[in-house]
Amino acid sequence: MATKKVSINVKSVKNDLYLVEVFRGLMLTLKHFMKIGAHAAYQAPLERRAGKISTNKRATIQYPEEKWVPYEKYRGLHRLNKDEQDRTKCVACEMCSTACPADCISIEAERSPWADEYPNDPKKEKHPKKYEIDILRCIFCGFCEEACPCEAIELTEIYDFSAYSRENAIYDKEKLEIVYELTKDGKYYQEGRSLDLEF
Amino acid sequence: MPKIKLDGKILEVEAGKTILQVAAENGKEIPHYCYHPKLSIAGNCRMCLVEVQGMPKLQTACSTPIGNAPPHRKIDEEFDMVISTKTEEVVESQKSIMEFLLLNHPLDCPVCDQAGECKLQDYSYDYGRGFRRAIEDKTPKPKKDLGPNISLYTQRCILCSRCVRFCDEIVGEHELAIANRGHKDEIVTYPGKPLKNRLSGNVADICPVGALVTKDFLFSARVWNLKHTKSVCTGCSAGCNIEVAHLDDKVKRFKPRENEEVNEVWICDDGRFGYHAIQEVERVKKPRKIDANGNQVDTNLRDAISEIVEKVSQVKKVWRAKSIGFLGSAHASNEENFLLNKFANKIIGSHNVGLRAPEITEDEVEFKAGFKIYGDKTPNRKGASQILKAENAYQVYNKIKHGEIKVLFVLGGIPEGGFLPEEEELFKKLDLLVVIDYQDSDLTKSAHYALGGKNYFEKQGTFTNVQGRVQRFSQAVSSQGSFLSDIEILQELMTAFDSHWKEMMPSEILIQIAKEVKEYKGMSLFKIGDLGMLQPQEVLETV
Fold this sequence. Notes:
heterodimer, A: alpha+beta, 3-stranded antiparallel beta sheet, two-stranded antiparallel sheet, B: about 550 residues, alpha+beta, Ubiquitin-like (UB roll), Rossmann fold, 5-stranded mixed beta sheet, 17 helices, about 20% strand
């Protein structure tokens, strides 16, 4: 693509006064202010997922009574997935902690309690004894999700998580599995769920 | 000397060397699995195939020796051999061999302990095809227990037979074999005869893939996270060179470090798994004393030392310096023993110095290839006796028995901890017992003052092995016990007795040892280096 050359006559009365541009800006604001029927771009998924057309067409969301539903690939709080037998999918390979640029994941592995059921499958033999994510350090880049060979760690749509102490901002295996239970159907905000963890 | 051309490079090499050795010496990597410099040549992995001009097929570099060609057979009338390692044929063969090796390999790298130091991973990147063409299922093979220390993930095995040859040639026990044929063949032990020789841990080291693993290290860390510190094994007086692998201030495993003069590339299982005995013990975290009521209470080093000084001066006034005894340790470094000796001779003026070490109860074991496990389970008996000029502690014990010694300073460090035989009764006669030991044992519990210390992962120093080789060990982890090391505690004590004492670093102490003890003449940490320094033989002979 060739570069398009645009010449701007800087020394013009129109440019000097800015008046035209100011009014044009104000008109845009007024248009949005008056606009009824057109949706703000980020509100559309809410309606689409909820399966109804909202009567509220304002761009403003009345948080926290009303919650914004993030788009599908939003990178929020982590979860640790489980398999069909309700066992953690994680094999403690430490790919996520190796990929993590913020160095916020710490894992300790051990022999899994169900290892004897699968003598031919080393992948079932190992599981995390400790799996901790320091959410305060996390930059939500999603590298862990990308590095995971077992689709065990995933970033969910949850954005409203906070803690009163630094200890509570460390998400261990139990907490991450609770997050999985809450988000596995992908309807965390639609169903009006909230994280019922000790903060 | 044959003149050869290796990938266009003209070399003159010794006849009889193999192509692989010559290539390695000239910085050219030829991939290989079954070849190991310390084992016989098997030539079964076929990974090292190279093209030799004039030979009809590709040749295994590990087993093809370089020799002189008769004049009429010389290539270009000048070269005895022309070898190429990068031709199209070689590259294609390497890709095919990798494909064969990976045909039944489970590719469970995420859970495999070898990942990160796996030759199969490395060569897949460098020489592999990068994708799988076979659509057939892989043959599942179980995980097997080969012995008390070693597990075998049968499916990961590429049958290089290094472990089989190790047990045949280095250990001489012939415990492993390859059974069955075709895709069913696998490493087995004989019925009722598990792999339990005292060098069995080495098979996990020489295994190029993750098939043989030590149960001890299994799942405990990913190898790329480990940090390595060069050190010396304290399991016996051989002083095998090791690398201490540690993570988050915890020692995770020992790996042998190559030193042709000491341990070649092996270590025994006693040493390999011996770190538990040092790491997982109760520690003296704070200086402690026994108060007037006979209870053990925490104190601080400054108070403890000032009280010791006071008590020792009282005893010294009445009974003179000869009533004060000192016991060095065969588990303490040369530097610590040297300081204790200085403390006794220079500062207190006593010559009651003994060497405290457990009795030698075991016989020396020699394996087929010459690797030795010594009966003397102390790392530094030789060095300590040279520095303390005492072979044992009997002289000091006798004097305690006869009431001549009232005060005793003891350097600890013995991994089993506690009293040596006879000591428990004997030490009750003392007016004052001061123990510098990292481990909380009945010895430190009964000591009037237990001042703490660091274990040998947490400090640095030198040991002298049974050959008279002085080898250094470095600090691997930060202290889980007391704040000060044995050397620092000793120097605090010395400064309290004599304010003119100039505190020294371990490296400075070694220089001082080199000045004063003739066996250590000219030594320094720098000169000792990673591989140690042998004490001058003429000095040893006259001693």
